[in-house]
Fold this protein.
Amino acid sequence: LTACINTSRDMTNVNVNSRVVESCAEGDHVQFMPFSMKFNGETEVQKRFNTETKENKEKGCLENSFRGYPLEGVKMTLPEKYAGLVLDTGVLTFSGEKENIRGVKMFKEFTYWNYDRVPSENDNLAQALQWTKVAEALHGDTN
């Protein structure tokens, strides 16, 4: 499968192997972090991060830290009929151009993290996910 994403400058191809579409990642496999990392490779997320995640029942969230920075998070599920796609953005070639982007894993659930603040409905991500309900009401089947 190939999808095209229209950016302001040109088209970007996203290649998705059918094996990726047929299998979903576990709920604790995908972490939506409040920062970006300049890292290209694999790491032991389960061993180095997931095992350190604790539930804070008083605050109603998960707690962890990354490089000493406190994180507070919640597990989220994508709306029905939607799936997420983890993308590998490729590496820069000798010419400085990025290679094609490829989808590496589908997911329905993920953990959403904030720095030292419990995620809420006021966060941009939560509001974006609410928009799917508005779009369905406006454009969905009325039967």
Summary: The beta strands are 2-6, 11-16, 31-32, 54-56, 61-66, 69-77, 84-88, 101-107, 109-115. The chain has three helices and nine strands. Residues 49 and 56 are 16 Å apart (CA to CA).
